[in-house]
Amino acid sequence: MTDNEFEAAISRSGLQLRPETMAELRRASANIESLIARVTRDKPVEAEPAVVFYPEQRT
Amino acid sequence: MTPQLTIAEASRLFAARKLSPVELMQDCFRRIRATDDRLNSFLLLTEERAMADASASEQRWSSGQARGRLDGIPIGHKDIYNTAGIRTTAHSRILEHNVPTEDALSVRKLADAGTVLIGKLATHEFAMGGPSFDLPWPPARNPWNPDHFTAGSSSGTGAAVAAGFVLGGTGSDTGGSIRLPAALCGITGIKPTYGLVSRRGVLPLSFTLDHAGPMAWTAEDCALLLQAMAGHDPGDPASVDRPIPDFTSGIGDGTKGLRVGLIRHFHETDNVASAATRAGIENSLAVLRELGATVTDVTLSPLVEYHACGILILITEAYAIHKPWLTTRFYDYGELVRDRFALGALVSGEHYVQALRRRRELCLEMTAAMADVDVLVTAAQPAEAPQIRAVPKWATLEKPGFTIPFNVTGYPAMSVCTGFGEGGLPVAMQIVARPFCEPLLLRTAHALERATPWRDKRPDVS
Questions:
Q1: Does domain B9-304+355-456 have CATH number 2.50.20.10?
Q2: B153 an active-site residue?
Q3: What is the spatial order of strands in the sheet that B413-420 belongs to?
Q4: Whether this model's pTM surpasses 0.95
Q5: Mutating which of B312, B326, B341, B346 best tests the A interface, going by the most A Cβ atoms within 10 A?
Q6: Is B11 noted as a catalytic residue in this protein?
Q7: Looking at this predicted complex, what is its ipTM?
């Protein structure tokens, strides 16, 4: 994630952050990127998500 | 003052008319008043209501109309469980003056079983960030040494049960928040199967990872509390409609023939646990073998794979839940939780779906791994409790935790004490069963507790 990508993501979020918070999140963003890399490895195209959807709602 | 009792012991004394619910409740308040200013386990005490409830329980026991073994038992609720007419804050300035109008379903069910609510218990803010020192209330501290961390997020329940302020309480577990404080405070906690206990009225953190469950001194006490909490709730979309077994009837049946799968690489390679933690696991396995169990090694994906999947889902769902407050009251949160929540802004829709696809792969892997074993064992925490001021801000991101795999898969899991480390604080291990096999899980934990001396040692909080 480049600085521009990071700033765009925060800007899109609408969060109003102080510079020190931005800096802290920027430091932690590397951890998030490494987590993302682990879940975005190649999968079969038909690999389904672990989401259960009931057409017949059980309310 | 009565000695510190388990729920099962107190109930037997009530039945034999050797102790009354009022006497027990008064002892709990005496302990709280004497020492909770050092432990900060309670955010709010409900003494007047507790006195009335204990008196009513006493009358039921006297007239032979006790509602069961939980009648008259003093408990506390984590302060993310809604309590009608009683402030529920999530330990946060955001909800500092929040007074719900309805009880969480588990709160109501435990009250219907006759329990006496002593008060609302500390939590990491919104069950996510902690320990925090910039909130309206201080963080709970570990009764074994108040300079040390309780872990969380069910920090107050862990501390209060260990200190004998309550005989049991509620927790919630999204990535380990029942099992982690249970481990560091030397008590027992169970995260039930996803869907077994209603989450209605429990403030959400991550819809697909959140679990509600009990914490107590022993597995038997957890079974008694779980019996009251479990059951189908049409008001919780994740709630499962299936018969609820009797969690205590076979709890003493032992573990002869039990097949244990040891996920050794989790705690010996992927996140190397302390020598005391590893010794506690090995000693416990030796005990289980003596009791007739067999132990084989089981290999799963590296712990970090489960961690990555779980953390991404957690922060994305938490961010979505908290977005309205994050955009309007960001700096009313404590630093730890607001910064952790804000990381959700960095996860795209694609990344979230990829995490859910990975989750399905990991669920299938765990199902296959348990084909030939009845329970899994690994660490619950890497070591005994660290100093409370020495917990890194991004600890949950930096090292993979042992507990989140079973939130990712929804499998039931418990933390049980396995001894004490070099610093004199508890160490623990985790036991995991197949979905809805809580009776076997509780039976295994109970057998271990009966065969080891760790339930006989309480922290000195005098």
A1: no
A2: yes
A3: B42-45, B116-121, B74-78, B168-173, B211-216, B188-191, B413-420, B426-433, B375-379, B259-262, B294-297
A4: yes
A5: B346
A6: no
A7: 0.94
